[in-house]
Q: What sequence folds into this?
């Protein structure tokens, strides 16, 4: 799927979550579910502020906070993506860059109270600075959440 097409629907969170930014390295909030079901997304960028050039682990968790099973439909084999942008909006790192995904429809079912986790790792780390991290659950109608990541100068 074309990256320009996938980037358009990134803002599908509830209005209260449109500008989530957490200096502590994590964010959490609900994404609209169907038929009274509720998917809660949380995003973690690790503990605190890492020093420059150290590996960074990013984790997206989707939890069914509803009372019924929640079915997540995917347009292809990709389930998630992570993007890191600099303060000026330039794309610094994207998990899916250079990866290929099976071109088949997919489905995941989340029972009430259960969660799914997806992880990305920036092996080379990042230079010192403040970054915007966007995690997207790449369902047919994508759900996204974002957080702020501060990388400290190396000592």
A:
């Amino acid at each position: 799927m074309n990256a320009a097409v996938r980037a358009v629907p990134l803002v599908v969170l509830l209005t209260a979550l449109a500008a989530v930014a957490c200096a502590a390295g994590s964010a959490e909030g609900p994404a609209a579910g169907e038929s009274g079901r509720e998917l809660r997304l949380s995003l973690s960028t690790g503990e605190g502020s890492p020093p420059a050039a150290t590996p960074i682990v990013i984790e997206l968790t989707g939890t069914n906070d509803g009372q019924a099973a929640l079915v997540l439909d995917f347009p292809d084999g990709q389930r998630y993506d992570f993007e890191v942008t600099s303060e000026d909006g330039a794309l610094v790192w994207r998990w899916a860059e250079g990866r290929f995904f099976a071109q088949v429809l997919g489905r995941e079912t989340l029972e009430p109270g259960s969660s799914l986790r997806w992880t990305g790792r920036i092996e080379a780390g990042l230079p010192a600075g403040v970054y915007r991290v966007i995690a997207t659950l790449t369902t047919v109608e994508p759900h996204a959440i974002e957080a702020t990541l501060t990388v400290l100068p190396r000592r």
Notes: The chain has a mean pLDDT of 82. Helices lie at 3-7. The chain has one domain: 3-151. Strands lie at 26-32, 38-44, 56-64, 70-74, 80-86, 91-94, 106-110, 115-122, 129-137, 143-151.
